[in-house]
């Protein structure tokens, strides 16, 4: 009975996925991903519900409850780090639930899912640290070769060196220091583990935020500026931001015959010949966007100012209210969303694709910026980690002294 149920469920899922992807084959990648995730989640929930009805159990309400909690807070305020913790809490509850269902209803499908995840986890435990170091070193080489040699572009190298140093301290340190002081050697590892958890949370919510699907009823698309080539020409990275906004402009125009205005936001740096927004407007004009459909904001020098000054322009243009979104590179839109919220601008972001080799360094740079924004809590946690290791060392010293 259970085998027949699972075979039918698997056939239904595969057929549904194939038909869906044939149907949406001409849509963009983000839209296909959203619909595939929705279909997979819906069919998995339906399968689990049928399996539980057969067993007369209702454990499914636990992960669904955590998802409902995440869903409520996420769509209430998307650009919040707490949403990442809520989503990961949902994932943990889901994996525990799948484990319970695997044995309570003899579910071959959930056993297969957990088996695949288990193999992956085993590979991470066996080779993850060394693979990560090799990957970071290789990625740092690519970034160093293809991008400017600034500190911001060396973050993957810095992280790799930090992991190597912490590993060496943990391996060699115990042979060089008294036994009671060994917990002190754990400080670098503990700090890295804490930062990994925070980074995982940031990465989770940042990737989810990229699934934004704004309605084609916007009045404005804010395009966030970036540095210019030779102080006057749009860089490839900035061009992708503008192209993303233009793509939304055309999509809304096709669906509603009322395209949004593009608001180019970016001031003039000390090494730039023209404001970024002027160069951005010229690029958009070359792409066929009418002059009257482009506004410029020429005073901002940071993402926070992008949002604040753009908000002032939109409120002046439409004092009775407006709808707006913003466009930037995919790794940047979550932090930009945090700044939009900070200035009271109700707008979600749409992300432009970034070269794959640059993404690890880019996400690390965004993570460092997030750490700075929330620096107080992270400093407190760092101090607590250090004090905890010191306390354990002193306790071991006291035990050794008392025993001796």
Describe this structure in words.
The chain is an alpha/beta fold and 404 residues long. It has three domains: 2-120, no CATH class; 130-209 and 375-403, no CATH class; 220-365, 3-Layer(aba) Sandwich (Rossmann fold). It is built from 14 helices and seven strands. It has helices at residues 2-23, 29-55, 61-76, 82-104, 108-146, 155-172, 182-185, 187-209, 236-256, 276-286, 303-317, 333-342, 359-373, 375-403; strands at 220-224, 228-229, 233-234, 261-265, 294-297, 324-329, 347-352. The strands form two sheets. It has a five-stranded parallel sheet with strand order 5-4-1-6-7, with helices on both faces. A two-stranded antiparallel sheet has the order 2-3. Strand 2 and strand 3 (233-234) form a beta hairpin. Helix 3 runs antiparallel to helix 4. It comes from Candidatus Enterococcus moelleringii. This is YdcF family protein. Residues 219-367 form the DUF218 domain. InterPro entries: Cell_Envelope_Assoc, DUF218, Rossmann-like_a/b/a_fold.
């Amino acid at each position: 009975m259970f085998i027949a149920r699972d075979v039918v469920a698997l056939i239904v899922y595969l057929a549904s996925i194939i038909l869906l992807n044939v149907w949406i084959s001409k849509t963009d990648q983000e839209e296909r991903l959203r619909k595939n995730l929705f279909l997979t989640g819906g069919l998995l929930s339906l399968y689990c519900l049928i399996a539980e009805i057969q067993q007369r159990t209702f454990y499914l309400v636990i992960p669904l409850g955590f998802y409902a909690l995440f869903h409520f807070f996420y769509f209430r305020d998307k650009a919040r780090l707490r949403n990442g913790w809520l989503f990961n809490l949902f994932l943990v509850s889901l994996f525990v639930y799948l484990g319970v269902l695997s044995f309570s209803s003899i579910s071959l499908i959930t056993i297969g899912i957990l088996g695949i995840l288990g193999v992956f986890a085993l590979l991470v435990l066996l080779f993850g640290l060394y693979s990560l170091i090799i990957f970071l070193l290789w990625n740092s080489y690519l970034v160093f070769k293809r991008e400017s040699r600034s500190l911001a572009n060396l973050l993957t190298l810095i992280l790799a060196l930090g992991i190597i140093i912490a590993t060496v301290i943990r391996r060699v340190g115990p042979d060089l220091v008294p036994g009671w002081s060994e917990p002190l050697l754990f400080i670098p590892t503990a700090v890295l583990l804490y930062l990994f958890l925070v980074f995982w949370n940031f990465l989770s919510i940042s990737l989810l935020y990229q699934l934004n699907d704004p309605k084609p009823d916007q009045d404005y698309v804010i395009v966030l500026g970036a540095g210019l080539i030779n102080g006057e020409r749009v860089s490839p990275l900035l061009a992708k931001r503008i192209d993303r906004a233009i793509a939304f402009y055309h999509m809304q125009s096709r669906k509603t015959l009322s395209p949004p205005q593009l608001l180019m936001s970016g001031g003039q740096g000390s090494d730039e010949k023209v404001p970024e927004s002027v160069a951005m407007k010229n690029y958009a004009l070359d792409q066929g966007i009418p002059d009257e459909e482009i506004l410029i904001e020429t005073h901002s020098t940071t993402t926070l100012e992008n949002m604040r000054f753009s908000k002032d322009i939109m409120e002046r243009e439409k004092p009775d209210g407006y709808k707006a979104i913003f466009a930037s590179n995919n790794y940047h839109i979550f932090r930009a969303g945090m700044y939009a919220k900070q200035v009271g601008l109700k707008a979600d972001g749409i992300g432009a694709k970034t070269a794959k080799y640059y993404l690890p360094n880019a996400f690390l740079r965004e993570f460092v910026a997030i750490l700075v924004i929330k620096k107080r809590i992270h400093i407190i946690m760092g101090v607590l980690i250090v004090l905890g290791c010191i306390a354990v060392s002193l306790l071991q010293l006291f035990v050794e002294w008392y025993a001796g």
